[in-house]
Write a structure and sequence with these properties.
Layout (H helix, E strand, L loop, with lengths): L2 H20 L1 H4 L4 E5 L42 H9 L20 E3 L21 H19 L1 H10 L1 E5 L2 H8 L5 H5 L2 H21 L4 E5 L8 H4 L9 H24 L4 E5 L2 H9 L8 E5 L24 E3 L7 H20 L10
Parallel strand pairs: 1-2, 1-3, 3-4, 4-5, 6-7
The protein binds 2-acetamido-2-deoxy-beta-D-glucopyranose (2 copies).
GO cellular component, one term: extracellular region
Keywords: Hydrolase, Lipid degradation, Lipid metabolism, Secreted, Signal
GO molecular function: hydrolase activity, acting on ester bonds
């Protein structure tokens, strides 16, 4: 397999996924299933009685409709909410908020859960969260409910034609490998750990495929070494280069995995959305995007006890000036910039189909 063919395959996969994603005609009926962590959560953990990974209290949601703390880990909307707006669909509801017989499942579901990772042991100290495996199990249940409503053939068609957004893996670093008191960081070298993550992800993607998923968009990890909760570990407040290096290695291995799966699984159109450069640019050059601060959060969090925004925390004056809302999560304003970039890259890859020889990605 030549390098050029691989690049072509990757570009073709992007065009196939995003052709379906942004073509205006199909947008209104587009069904999306969302899997992930706190960057994509819209309120599943509110329904987990003992979960410590929650954000259903002030100041979360202060810039959301009705100033409501919905369980989103930001002051306003997630990137997924904003992408949904741009696609003209409503952001799918949290799985755990649905009743057994809810017709909403026919429009899509959000399974994302704060604290969740690829691995089961990730985020264990939050007591409860939906791991990626849990989320896939719930998708299987969802498919059974859809089948009961519209029959087997129509359910298969719906699941084949839906778009699957997956954003998971940050917690496998932040709330696992990078925590010196947890076993994984002691037990594995990074080379071993990244192999474990990628081989687990391979099984999880394959399982989603067996359940009918064809168009899967995986949201690559951002520069985790630059989030406020990591920067405080450097004496000078700099980004942790070693952590960013690990994340880039993870991203590039997942990118290769996706190319391999697209070849191996008939009609699979999986895509890797590389958000790392866009997030890093926003953090490094906040002023170029109309922000003032990229290295610390609007909510004055105590990173020694976590890094979430607590009701007794002080907020900054202008929330729009900050890239970060708390020590982990971007602000609504930053999510707007990132969602727009993602949307533009999706649209341009559709309107300009690849011609050979392809440009390098
Ligand atoms: C998580 O635990 C379940 C149940 O024990 C197991 O079936 C699954 O393979 C585990 N997944 C991972 C990623 O370790
Ligand atoms: C953030 O950057 C500003 C300006 O470059 C600097 O003055 C400030 O000390 C930095 N804050 C932290 C927490 O590193």
């Amino acid at each position: 397999m030549t390098q050029q063919w691989l690049v072509f395959a990757a570009v073709a996969a992007i065009v196939l996924v995003l052709g379906a994603l942004v073509s205006a005609g199909t947008a209104a009926s587009m069904v999306t299933f969302v899997f992930g962590d706190s960057l994509a959560e819209v309120g599943n953990n509110n329904h987990l009685q003992y979960s410590l990974a929650r954000s259903d209290y002030p100041w979360y949601g202060i810039d959301f409709t009705g100033k409501k703390a919905t369980g989103r880990f930001t002051n306003g909307r997630t990137i997924g909410d904003i992408l949904s707006e741009k696609l003209g669909i409503s952001s799918p509801p949290p799985y755990l908020s649905l009743s057994q017989n809810d017709d909403a499942v026919l429009q899509g579901v959000n399974y994302a859960s704060g604290g969740a990772g690829i691995l089961n042991e990730t985020g264990q100290y939050f007591i409860q969260r939906l791991t990626f495996d849990d989320q896939i199990n719930y998708f299987k249940k969802t498919k059974e409910r859809i089948r009961a409503k519209i029959g087997e053939a129509a359910a298969n068609k719906l699941c084949n034609e839906a778009t699957y957004f997956v954003g998971i893996g940050s917690n496998d670093y932040v709330n696992n490998f990078l925590q010196p008191f947890l076993a994984d960081g002691q037990q594995y070298t990074h080379d071993e750990f990244v192999e474990l993550l990628v081989s687990t992800l391979e099984q999880q993607f394959s399982r989603l495929y067996q359940l009918g998923a064809r168009k899967i968009l995986y949201h690559g990890l951002g520069p985790l070494g630059c989030i406020p909760s990591q920067r405080v570990k450097s004496k000078t407040g700099q980004c942790l280069k070693r952590v960013n290096g690990w994340v880039m290695e993870f991203n590039s291995k997942v990118q290769k995995l996706i190319i391999t799966l697209n070849k191996r699984l008939p009609n699979a159109h999986m895509m890797f959305a590389d958000t790392y450069p866009a997030v890093l640019d926003l953090i490094d050059n906040p002023k170029a995007y109309g922000f003032k601060v990229g290295n610390t959060s609007c909510c004055n969090v105590d990173t020694s006890i976590g890094g979430l925004c607590l009701p007794n925390s002080k907020l900054c004056k202008e929330r729009k000036d900050y890239v970060f809302w708390d020590a982990f999560h971007p602000s609504d304003a930053a999510n707007e910039v990132l969602a727009q970039k993602l949307f533009d890259s999706l649209s341009s890859s559709v309107s300009a189909p690849p011609s050979l020889p392809p440009k390098p990605l």
